[in-house]
Description:
two-stranded antiparallel sheet, alpha/beta
Amino acid sequence: xxxxKAVIPAAGLGTRFLPxxxxxxxxMLPLVDKPTIQYIVEEVIASxxxxxxxxxxxxxxSIEEHFDRAVELEDNLxxxxxxxxxxxxxxxxxMINIHTVRQKDPLGLGHAVYCAKSFVGNEPFAxxxxxxVVDSKKPCLKQMIEMFEEYNSTILGVQxxxxxxxxxxGIVSGEKLNDKxxxxxxxxxxxxxxxxPTNIAILGRYIITPKIFEILENTKKGVGGEIQLTDGLKDLxxxxxxxxxxFEGRRYxxxxxxxxxxxxxDFALKRDDLRDSFKAYLRxxxxx
Length: 288
Ligand code: G1P
């Protein structure tokens, strides 16, 4: 079955980035000059998906604005002959069919995904978390879709993380099928380092079968008093095959300040229009 729909949960409060996120959604903070959520939407498009549902919440209106037409701005850019910018601005609103639904209460990622139930219907679908931006030759989601086409069941995008960081992630354990794929036997959300079964972490990319909705409907609050997607997936792996796929690429946790800074520097250095002058500046910095 083809993956046609993607869900991007974006209802979080962004407390790690206060005060910047008091009035601006964290998903709109730019890496160089593009909001982080646009990198995610571009990955979705580059992976061949046509419909995206963004789960929003209060104060997230600017995300919808961003992917909509901006008629006055376009008129102005046209009149002032700023063709390149005009093209860039128009491109965003033409990108893809963006739908939104509001998560009315911040009850956790599992609940946010459950809000996508009627949009998704009875098909497998992709979930991409906005805090995880992946830079890779082949788009991370595309790699996952290829795995799905091979295994026809839920696929979790994972990579090993430093053991001292396992308490920040959903951690999987299971049997290694080959260098890149595990059959998942168990999952645990944000375990303490001493209790973590492995250091293989889910890094914000999922392809999930619709069975998850029946499960999430009854999933109880877990770590942090939130309904956790990881807990739902743990139940799912007792009913259906769940695989963990070690994707290729550099993943940035742009929800953390350090990850955001790393991505900003690396992405600026990849830009033809900035590389030389930015490098020249970086060379002047005394790091001691
Ligand atoms: C969420 C998930 C977690 C996953 C992580 C990836 O946690 O609950 O399982 O490993 O994203 O970034 P959050 O970072 O929202 O606390």
